[in-house]
Amino acid sequence: MTLPAGAILAVKSLAGAKSRLTGWDDERRRALVTAMLADTIAAIHAAGCTRVLVISPDPAVLEEAAACGAAGVREDGDGPGGLNRAMADGIAAARRRWPEVRRVALVQADLPAATGTQLRAALAAAAPYRQAFVADRRGDGTALLVRDADLATPTRFGPDSAALHRRDGLTELDPAHTLWAGLRNDVDTADDLDAALELGVGERTAAVVGDLPGDHSAADAGQSSPTARRPARGCVMIDR
After folding, report:
1. Where is this region: Disordered (predicted)?
2. Distance between CA atoms of 167 and 171, rounded to whole angstroms?
3. 13 a known binding residue?
4. Where in the sequence is the domain holding 106, given as residue range(s)?
């Protein structure tokens, strides 16, 4: 079984991150973004992928990436091209940094319920294909895309990305959407966070949510905070 040699995550500026999480102030949203990034990187490391690169215009994000044993690349800004441009830049940077890289996994950076076991299984399933992807829990987005590093074709992250990737001929892994629930659960809204918490999240995300004075989806609701439902995970420092 050949796993991708490198994983790439792109994170936008913290100033505008997770604006759809109602009831959260800006400071808490920023903390959640970096916590989910840390838990996602930990899952990638646990899957056996030691070359991890985070691309972002935000210095705080890159500091977090470094603390978690990932390489960081400063992006010019959240400009035209969005996530697809960032991923393309990330692939190019990974190939410069690690010339031996032949396969890359493009991973959403907000997968706090993903586990190393799930990621390893999905990466193994992708091995026979030049390009393969895992749709998100709704079936219209893309949580993971695995591809040969030398491909020049663009990715289609964004609205309806799963349909666009299917149209481009990429292989969809588990099209029945019965596997890898945590891997599929990216977090943009309070409902997404609820679903992730039901599955169990990494220790960094659990700490941010548990530190809220009330319910995570509406800070003034007065309900008790959910907790992690599986063993906590933190950052794993990798000696490259």
Report:
1. 212-240
2. 10
3. no
4. 6-189
